[in-house]
Amino acid sequence: MSFFRNQFANVVEWEEFREDMIFYKWKNREIKKGSKLIIRPGQDAIFLNNGSIEGAFQEDGEYDIESQIVPFLSTLKGFKFGFNSGMRVEVLFVNTKEFTVKWGTKNAINIPATGLPGGMPIRANGTFQFKVNDYISLIDKIAGIKNQYLVEDVKIRIISVLDQLLMKWIVTEGKDMFNLQANAFEIAKGIREDLDSQMAESGLSITGFQIMSFSYPKEVQDMINKNASHGMVGNIDKYQQISMIDSMSSGKNSGGGTASDMAGMMMGMNMANQMMDKMNKQNQNQQQNQQPASEPASEPAPQSQEKKQRPNFCPNCGTKTGEGNFCSNCGHKLV
């Protein structure tokens, strides 16, 4: 009799476990008397009955379902295993670890910019982290219709909205389009908050989001690199000189591509405005410097002055003076 009964016993466990699998559903099989539940480290086991949670078990180990699991199930705790009868439930195994995923824009994002009708094409890449934090929402939105869920499924969903979020946090927040890397932390923080609010309805939490780098079209990136290497920030004269020399020596005045032409036009307009301001200031300074020269010159000082009158007595010793310029007694200068 014992042999006959044991042949119906089975093991409830996560079969064919994968590191990139978020959850796995064990279903469509009857749990018999003597069955075991195996929970491995990093896993939770959720017992479901008609789509509702019966019980959640989070400690890893091996459990006897009849004596250690059934008594803790909400509506099935009074279930009694009879001969050749079993309990039909679903068991959802959830991976509790935090997943790290690499992301990158598939196509360039055309960020709107003044003077660029088609926008500035920019790419970006980085990583994000997520984990399951709400079993009820996970079951209602995803596990109710899927037997398994992979990291790739989450990545596809994130990538589908990432372009709009990048554009939002670059454009609406007024970030410097030519220096996005300096604002990468703030942009990433805003995107993480938006993603977390969107994924929360599915029981997932976005625990981190990082932007590793932004990339521009090659022609624009070369201009940015040149600007940094020559220390031209705030030194428009140096930028003008180097740009003119490079253009004349390399012959790259034309054919640089739409993005670089438009970016160069934007920089050129800024440069022209700064040059005009500087020229106006220089003209004003020159006029101010020339103004004193136009005033009538003062009368020239007399080339010679009359000699001072020689005293009759030396102011130092009182001796009567003669015709000399020095006192004959003490040598004091008289004139």
From TrEMBL:
Compositionally skewed regions (Low complexity) per UniProt = 280-304
Q: Which CDD domains match?
A: SPFH_like_u1
Renumbered to this chain, region (Disordered) spans 280-313
Per its UniProt entry, which superkingdom is the organism in?
A: Bacteria
Which SUPFAM superfamilies does the record match to this protein?
Answer: Band 7/SPFH domain
Q: Where is the SPFH domain?
A: 26-231
InterPro entries recorded: Band_7/SPFH_dom_sf, SPFH_YdjI
Q: What is this protein called?
A: SPFH domain-containing protein
Q: What lineage, starting at the top, does this entry show? A: Bacteria, Bacillati, Bacillota, Bacilli, Bacillales
